[in-house]
Amino acid sequence: MSSLTYRLRKLKNQVRRAADDRGHRLGRFTTHPMNDEVAYAQCTICGRAVSVCTDPPTGIMMAGDVLRTKCRRSNFKMARKSL
Ligand SMILES: [Zn+2]
Fold first, then answer.
1. I want to staple 54 with a disulfide (CB 3.0 to 4.6 A). Which of 1, 19, 37, 47 is the partner?
2. Distance from the CA of 7 to the center of ligand 1, in angstroms?
3. How far is the CA of 62 from the centre of ligand 1 (A)?
4. Beta partners for 63?
5. Is residue 56 part of a domain?
6. pLDDT digits over 28-75, tens only?
7. How many A from CA of 54 to the centre of ligand 1?
8. CA-to-CA distance for 69 and 4, rounded, in angstroms?
9. Between residues 55 and 18, the one the model is more confident about
10. Do residues 38 and 53 touch, judged by C-beta distance below 8 A?
């Protein structure tokens, strides 16, 4: 596995956790067809999107509404069993 693949996988895991904290449930990541340093995913509940990039010019590794907003299924946390 290349280091790029490894970094992208780490980023995806971070984003998945962040999305989960806000009640979102991300679908599969899709890698950009022209740039394999970029990948996208969408929440399967509300449809909001998030993107990750391993080497962005802005220095921001992840962006999207998923990271800024709670999922519309607001009772998600309540329904979850505590560990
Ligand atoms: Zn959502």
1. 37
2. 24
3. 16
4. 51
5. yes
6. 999 999 998 899 999 999 999 999 998 878 788 999 999 999 998 655
7. 23
8. 28
9. 18
10. yes
